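Dear support,

We are seeing what looks like truncated structure output for some complexes. This example has two components. We would appreciate it if you could run it in full and send us the complete token output so we can diff it against ours.
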Amino acid sequence: MKTNKQELASTLLSELKLYINAGIASMHTFSGPLGNEDIFVRLNNKEDIASVATMVKKHQGRCVTVTPNGVEGGDEVAYHFCIEGVMLNAISFTDDKTVPSITPILKSADWTEREMNDLFAIKPVGHPNPKRLILDESIAEGVFKEYVSLSEAMAGAATCSLWENLNEAKQGESHE
Amino acid sequence: MSKAYKLPIGPVHIALEEPVYFKVHLEGETIVDVDILSGFVHRGMEALVLRKNFLQNMIITERTCSLCSNNHPFTYIMAVEKIAGIEIPKRAEYLRVIADEIKRAASHLFTIAMQAHLIGFHSLMTQTMETREILQDVKETIWGSRMDLSANTIGGTKYDLDAAKTKYLFDKLEELKKPLRELFEIFRENKLVMARTKGVGMLPTEDALRLGVVGPTARGSNVNNDIRDIYPYVAYNKLDWNVVLEEGCDVRSRTLVRLREAEQAISLVEQCLREMPEGPIALKGLPRIVAGEAVARTEAPRGELFYYVKSNGTDKPERLKWRVPTYMHWEALRVMMPGNKTADTALIFNSIDPCISCTER
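Here is the complete output from our reference environment:
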């Protein structure tokens, strides 16, 4: 059974108004010739993005990605969601380099929010794992000495005794 | 014998095509957790494209990735066409499907060949690569390149098919059918393949939905994220086909989805060749890109590929952002890997059809 996307899009739009406290600055929908609907909504208050994410979650939607963009006086952050094929693009504005993280609500936003922090220094406040994603510096900390090599581990996977021998050999020099 | 170990895989490693770094936490031989680090080869392409004009960016986006190379300019172009209000000729819609499906079949076969290699079944790997070679020949003959096809342009396609090329394509697709069927049977029935792939790297349906995974990774967990179906573009809604879904949620299911889709690609191309109307393949003259914003999506071999374009009336984009399919799959590895054996690490990793050059763009 195919989703009627026009109907879904108008349902989403009327629901959005209930979820968003501070209101919508502007809104338009691009209806494609093959029945695809792209909704663009500009939020008055960046805090409302959490409510939008909650609505997306309720409809079993997902976060496709987030596009930060430097504009005059701050940054524009466009969130792209997919709900049963309908694209919902919610665009917010921040002037203090922070936005509320939506990853606790939509796990699918995890990496893209971390990338936003790396590349645009816009901090997703409340992100459960706000580590660097790009150009990770931990590689310089001598981790190679800390770990067992794959070839040794793969050899150990062939039989138990091999693995036990490996364990023994490593005794005393492995780091816990 | 329950000693806890940490095992590094990468950033440069024989089992990985490209640099990414896994920290695998082991109890004996069993994986209990995995950390993933990426970002070793970030290329800054999103910054680069802002310095080039809309036509030059067709060339750059095609260089994001080798296996999904056709989908990058394709999706970018569709977003630009939405802003400019361009409707492409009917014939071009079918030509775009043909290029896309040939790339899809070739990409799937490559991943599957890598899987055969990783389970130590090397004759199967060579057999898969040999079958894929038919598609490589097709690409070289029709588009003049084995990887980057440059098939699309703003307003249509750059290539056309005459009677001789159409016959050649029909013949080559026919040649592909039997070996592809054989591969399908082996990957489905062979005991060795079954032992290494069934029940391995489980991604339950609810996790697939929660993590927003796409492409064969999602469809192997019975989640329909096929953009060709849920967000149709060009001629896909005019062709006779069904979304391929498997319910096993394991490495085997993801492989079967890919093999069935490779077979389906043949049918889709054949339908296009039969039903394609005559006429122009592209609009004449240079397009005018007004100020605006648009999103576009296609189903790349690895899954949903997303482009967002914002223009300001100049000949260069104000912002161009893309999200590649593999990007959504890394976090899924943290669900797939725990509970499996060390020796399956690379195999499970391969099953998401990883692409670091895409991820790092």
